[in-house]
Amino acid sequence: MNARVAVVTAAAGAGIGSAIAKRLAADGFDVVVTDAHERRAGELAAQLSDQHGRDFMSAVLDVTDPAAVAAVCDSVVAQRGGLHVLVNNAGWSKIEPVAEMDLETWRRCLDVDLNGTFYCMRYALPHMIAGGGGAVVNISSIAGWEMTTEHGAAYSAAKAGVMALTRVAAAENGRHGIRVNAVAPGLIYNEFLTKIYPPEFFSGYAEGRSYVGRVGQPEDVASLVAFLAGDESGYITGEVYGISGGVHPHA
Ligand SMILES: NC(=O)c1ccc[n+]([C@@H]2O[C@H](COP(=O)([O-])OP(=O)(O)OC[C@H]3O[C@@H](n4cnc5c(N)ncnc54)[C@H](O)[C@@H]3O)[C@@H](O)[C@H]2O)c1
Question: For this structure, is 189 an active site residue?
Answer without folding.
Answer: no
